[in-house]
Amino acid sequence: MPVTHTTASTPGAARTVTAPEPLAHDAVRRIARNALAPMAAQLINKGLFWAFSIYIALMWALVLRFCLQPEAIGTKTHLKVTAFTAFLGVLAVLVLSRLPIISSLTAETQSASLAGRLLGFTLGVGLVEEGVKAFPIYLFLFRRGQFQRPLTYAYMGAMSGLAFGSTEAVVYSLSYAQGLAVGGLGFGDYIVVQFIRFITLPLLHGIWSGMACYFVGLAALNRNKARVLFVVGLSMVAVLHGVYDTFASGWGGLAIAVVSLLMFVSYARTDAHVVREVQRPILTDSMVAAGLPPVGPQPPAAEGTTGHASMAHATAADNPVAQPFPGPPVGSQPDVGQPPLARPSASPPSASPPSSSHPVSDPPPRRYG
User: Fold this and answer.
1) What are 156-175's pLDDT values in tens digits?
2) How far is CA 3 from CA 6, 7, 16, 18, in A?
3) Which range, 25-39, 102-116, 303-317, 346-360, has the best average confidence (pLDDT)?
4) Strand partners, 4
5) pLDDT above 80 (res 346)
6) Is residue 86 packed enough to be buried (19+ CB in 10 Å), middle (13-18) or exposed (0-12)?
7) Which run of H or E residues covers position 85?
8) What spatial distance separates the first Cα and last Cα of the chain, rounded to whole Å?
9) Which partner for 294 in 216, 251, 254, 365 could form a disulfide, CB atoms 3.0-4.6 Å apart?
10) Does the structure show a pLDDT above 80 at 22?
11) Residue 21 predicted with pLDDT over 50
12) Residue 179 near residue 185, CB atoms below 8 Å
């Protein structure tokens, strides 16, 4: 509104002067518009980037859910895993990358040596990012032991990877847009890198994280081997991630992407066989001689028997040589005129037979030695 002032130019005479409104000047409005327009455009672009990134991630999530067929997972678990990775996970990567050892490894990604770049991308980038993506699966799924199928862990790991890749895509896309605005990036290159960043790389992040968390699911089935399975799964995907980043600008990057996809599919197709191998207990000849039970997941004890008794039955069933001969010693003959041996009673024994403690569906122990 206009501001009025009352002045007196001569004694006894008053005159009212109306001051113009500040925003009424065209120059002021033009300055304000030019100052706020870039901020508004940046917010609009960021919103569009987020919308497109979330849309692509949801499409990949539907494809992975159809392929992996995980167990029933609640919406709350989905939100906890994806929100943890998208916000806390990305922040954790930024914080960890500033630590002395990791920052020196990250600096090697700019090395002129191929070995230096490979080491930097594998340990400074791949290991850190894959560990951060797998952590919510360990926190929300493995520790609670709610799910049994490794493919369920792989699916949720893929969701964590998609959340990380989508957030990373938005951050990089803003820098690409600034490069396009200042002429540092051509329009054709801009379109290519945006499609790769929004469509391809979130899927790769999901595949790598899914494979790492598949081993977390295997560890949930056999917790005696949990540390080994954790190390194997995380190391494998860290190497794949590091090699891809090293050769991302050439055909080597495409080859690693194809290999990663084929490995992910192979784990999904051979899941039943891998689970049987992980659940199979280990039994060596020295353990048999010492009377020790197999190491690894054991079948449930038969009703009416203790765990040690059922394991003794299972060990005897798996090792026919160790079973006692039911009849008289070999070569001995009963004396003439002696009555025949009494037949056992037809009444069922109080305890279950040895074979019931080791169902047919359970794999036999692995023999080593």
Assistant:
1) 999 999 999 999 999 888 88
2) 10, 13, 10, 6
3) 102-116
4) 18
5) no
6) buried
7) none
8) 95
9) 365
10) no
11) yes
12) yes
